[in-house]
Design a protein that fits this description.
single chain; 2 domains; 6 strands
Length: 152
């Protein structure tokens, strides 16, 4: 497995994941606003106020998700997928005895080219345990010893 190429593919996967989240949030906000506008035209009294309040709440929730997605975009934009890392840091791909981890944003388990990877944030508990480890190092996580087999 070519670690540099895999790292680039995982970076691309993260970018697509964020784009999808942003598009979903924008579409949901637009739909909620259209729903609120429809409520104005077709309803009267308490039902009208309830419908508008529900649409407003949905818009606010989707705006929060959009803001969170924009934070993820900021994190991923700080990563240079072409950089070869000597130690585990944000943007690194770490092959360990527990699995292969891409340190970027918190997505979880990802299948790519028939292989499984864990795309995690550097601030996650396992990310914190792995941070700054080098090839050959052993780290402890949840009482288990994890061997770092390779880093890119």
């Amino acid at each position: 497995m070519n670690l540099q190429e895999t790292k680039k593919e995982l970076y691309k996967y993260c970018m697509q994941y964020i784009d999808q989240r942003i598009n979903n949030s924008l579409t949901a906000i637009k739909n909620a606003q259209e729903s609120a506008n429809t409520e104005v035209k077709s309803s009267a009294g308490d039902k009208h106020e309830t419908g508008r309040a529900m649409a407003q709440l949905e818009t606010e929730n989707n705006a929060k998700q959009l803001a969170e997605s924009n934070k993820l975009r900021h994190v991923i934009n700080q990563i240079n997928p072409n950089k070869n890392s000597e130690k585990i840091e944000t943007g690194a791909l770490a092959v360990t005895s527990l699995g292969t981890f891409y340190i970027a944003i918190s997505i979880g388990k990802v299948s790519l080219n028939n292989k499984e990877f864990f795309v995690i944030s550097a601030v996650s508990p396992i990310g914190q345990a792995l941070l700054n480890a080098k090839k050959g190092d052993k780290v402890k996580f949840n009482g288990k010893e994890i061997q770092v087999l390779d880093v890119a």
